[in-house]
Amino acid sequence: MDAAARGAGFAPGSRLIAADVGGTYARLGLVEALAGGGVRLLLHRRYPCAEFAGLAAILHRFREELAAEAVGAAFPATCVVAIAGVLQGDALLNSNLPWKVSLSETRAKAGIEHLHLINDFEALAWALPQIPQSELQVLGAGDGGGLSLPALLLGPGTGLGAALVIDQGGRAGVQPSEAGHAALAANTPLELDVVRLLQARFGHVDSERVFSGPGLMNLYQALCELRGVNPRWHAPVDLVDAADGGRDLLAAECTALFCRWLGSFAGDLALTFRARSVCLAGGLTGHLDHYLRQGGFMQRFLDKGVLSETLREVPVFAIEHGQLGLIGAAAWHAARSPS
Question: Which CATH class is domain 3-122+323-336?
Answer without folding.
Answer: alpha beta
